[in-house]
Amino acid sequence: MNTSNNNLLEFLGEKLADLKEFVMKHLRVVVPVAVGVLALIVLIISVSAHNARKAREQEEQAAAAAAEAESLLNVDSAVLAVPEVALEEDAYPAVNELVKKYFVAMASGDIELVRSYNNNIDDTEAIRIEETAKYIESYENLKVYTKIGPSDGTYLAYVYYEEKFRDYEESIPGLEAFYICTDDSGKLYINDGEESESVINYIREASLQDDVVDLNNEVASTYNNMLAQNEDLSIFLVDLTESIDTAVGESLAQNEGSTDTQTAEADTGEDEEEKEEPVAGTTVSDIVKTVRATTTVNIRSSDSETADKLGKAAEGDEFTLIEKRGNGWSEISYNGASAFIKSEYLEDASVEAVVNVNNGNDDGDDASTDTQTADTQTNAASTKTSGTVTVKDNVRIRASASTEGDKIATAYVGQKLDVVEKLANGWTKIKYEGQIAYVKSEFVE
Hints:
By secondary structure, the chain is α+β, with helices and mostly antiparallel strands. Among the domains are: 88-233, Nuclear Transport Factor 2, Chain: A; 286-355, Roll (SH3 type barrels); 376-443, SH3 Domains (SH3 type barrels). It contains nine helices and 18 strands. The strands form five sheets. It has a five-stranded antiparallel β-sheet. Strand 9 and strand 10 (329-334) form a beta hairpin. The longest helix has 51 residues, at 27-77. The N and C termini lie far apart (125 Å). The model is unreliable at 72-77, 268-286 and 353-385 (pLDDT under 50).
């Protein structure tokens, strides 16, 4: 056993001596190789450490971004507290300057200029501004009442103005609300395109504070008193609204026709779809529009914050819309009668065309039916009426179903008219003082 160990030790000693001799002889080769191997090992360790550090940094950045997104989501969905701060009159010169420029642009009908101050003017609104400007001389006596907005650099502005028309001596009072923001360059602009639910709720709550409601009621009362005391003014505004609505409708129809023509030209090689013809014996008598409450809101007996409360609408409740008024209120059908809700708390739910089946000749005798129709048209005195309609707003009675038709008389709020038929073109045929006449359907119910 000892002999074997001794032999092993002698063998190892010889090998070590041989290795030492090899290294000494080849020192110039062995040392560089060893250094190279060591450098490669160090490089591999360094790269691995760098990659690990980079991965950690990426994970940390992703976590920070997720946390920031969650924070923004929480802020957007949060309920922003609305401070009880009184309205300030002409308190911010920069806001006053923006409002002044905006109303000058509105009076001139310069849409590009209007859009440079307001970030959300759609094509329909642009047409209405252009048409209205044809009748506007100026906006006078501007007064800007403000409350602080939901964040730094934002304001809620309630602007009183007096509208001076070209063809009327008196100025008409009005009030308009704006949400004003500051862009990245520090420039103020009117933000009509706000989509944040928390900001919208903030604006709504601030606008329901007593001083804002009082201001709105004061202006509305002045306006309504002017109409009550001046019949000529009522007639003037009826005609003006009618003219503007007609012009806007015609312009939209022209634009739509132009678009349809372009589409048809692009589809020249394709089969034309057949246009659906009206079904004989039926007429579209009216358009029924349904609106939906977007939150819990009071239902009142008239279009005023001080009017009697008839009940409450819960979020999601739907009502038949009678009329959306220009003063910010919507008239609805409620418990079999008319009632009012602020328009800002309603959204469109559906629009339905109501089709009535006429009492035609079911035995196929078309000639007989045509004769009856001709007799009805030529003999107005024999036309049978189907009840009455009530005038909702002062409106012209005309000899034909057109704003170009001769003016026969003016119907006033609350007046009853014998109705013959509600037409699909937006007019109602009536019987007035023994003759057939017409009124715009939107002004009667």
